[in-house]
């Protein structure tokens, strides 16, 4: 039986449908991220689980118990907010102790628990400091310790890293994951940062317009996006609108490309061929060998690799290739780009593909 | 500061200091020499003690009622009804434009209704509701600023998610973080009640300000002494606000005015 369930969750604000009949189930100890652009309903979903919003319809179930109408202070859910959630009038350890005081735990137990958690988040030296004396990253550590102190049934995190510096963000997300694994706590994590979601989750649910677009392991989501939106949203993707010609071949502006996944699509069908930048190989055209011909228009140096932008028949392609190799392909060079026939994803091209602005059908 | 700046500042300071110094000088005058005679006369007057302590009690009652009324109101407006904020602000500022004389006539009219228990009508505490109304602007603007300085939503939700109910959230989380604003509001209200004349006079109660007026019309030197005492009280209240605002680790209190 799943540990935490969102059943047929529906939320409307006036005419706006924030969440549309969302079903989600988390196993005990699972770390699931709700990932999507702003306004996709991910934060609303989290706030409904926390009890700060009431769903228009649907249920929140934890361990088989319906919590939909239980007020937030009786739900036993630890929550970490985006920022500014620490009580300014209390120092770090008093903040952590707050939930334990509410639960009327004996002072000795409180003390032990607080010390343990402060230690766990690595803030023993700063235990007596007030929030305004702590850096943003430290504040979020305290907030995490405070949420964990009450031994919550579920840990909810609402973009807890979005207000932090890039470096602290990466550090802290690894720490959140470590703590979560160590404590085995069921966790729902909301973020708009796909890298963040992919790097710390057991599963990721990609949301758009209040619906789950795709749910799966980070590898599934990255390697096998099932909709143009997911393909677009996760990582960088080259999008080629092409026509299926023969079995396992498509035509892109007169160039024949071998694409294994095109098998099974009707000849003449318009499809979207999706190619990751890291699977594209680039050669100078002089060396011959078909592929997508074009001109190098820009280099973006990324360290070990360089993203080479190629203009191929009006379509911009991105190829991530070793920087040493990129140095031999200056801007303006005629090149051809190829990719392994089995690496590309193929999605049927129906309405206007992949544009997140497309509204769902009228209802 | 430039020279001319200091010049104009001195002119301004003199504008306040000269009358004050003159009053102080006069209050110490005893025939052709100086003494504390006028002050002794005031402090020995049982009327002084009676009216002073009555006004003190009225001030404390007003502060308690006004804070009980305004802290939850401003909290709720910030948390759940932000759209009502301009309306509440407008209502709170009304006593600035409605003269106290209109207010007291209205209040006396209300008190003439049957439902007001007659035996209390003689109690000066009937002034408290009127004073609470006069305190509206001070209460609202001081508290509103304090609430705007904190993240009311997040703090409330954080407190709730940790299991706290409304009472504990208000008492342990919200109140300590708006306390400077509440204290500023209290001091301003205190100064207000200690100096309010119109309402007390028209309702025929003998409060500290009506006593000042009475002395002012009957005794010259003690009146000057009383003015200095009264000024000292107001000054202490304002000093109190400044000291509270300067407490380390707290945001400075901003009194009145929109930001």
What structural keywords apply?
heterodimer, A: 363 residues, alpha+beta, Rossmann fold, OB fold (Dihydrolipoamide Acetyltransferase, E2P), 2 domains, 6-stranded mixed beta sheet, 5-stranded antiparallel beta sheet, 9 helices, 20 strands, elongated, B: 259 residues, mainly alpha, MetI-like fold, two-stranded antiparallel ribbon, 11 helices, 75% helix, disordered C terminus
Provide a short characterization of the protein structure:
The complex is a heterodimer of chains A (363) and B (259). Chain A is α+β, with helices and mostly antiparallel strands and 363 residues long. Chain A has helices spanning 42-50, 92-102, 107-120, 136-149, 166-183, 194-200, 218-223, 228-233, 323-326, and strands at 4-13, 16-26, 31-35, 57-62, 65-66, 77-80, 154-158, 186-191, 203-208, 211-216, 238-244, 249-252, 255-258, 270-275, 281-284, 292-301, 305-312, 315-322, 334-338, 345-348.
Structural summary, described in words:
The complex is a heterodimer of chains A (363) and B (259). Chain A has 363 residues and is an alpha+beta fold. Chain A contains 9 helices and 20 strands. Chain A starts with a strand and ends in a 15-residue tail after the last strand. The model of chain A is unreliable at 352-363 (pLDDT under 50). Chain B has 259 residues and is mostly helical. In chain B, α3 (46-79) crosses α10 and α6 packs across α8 (166-193). Chain B is globular, with a radius of gyration of 22 Å. The two termini of chain B are 26 Å apart. Chain A binds chain B through residues 50-52, 71-79, 81-89, 98-99, 102-103, 130, 132, 143, 146-147, 150, 156, and chain B through 150-151, 154-155, 157-165, 168, 172-173, 176-177, 249.
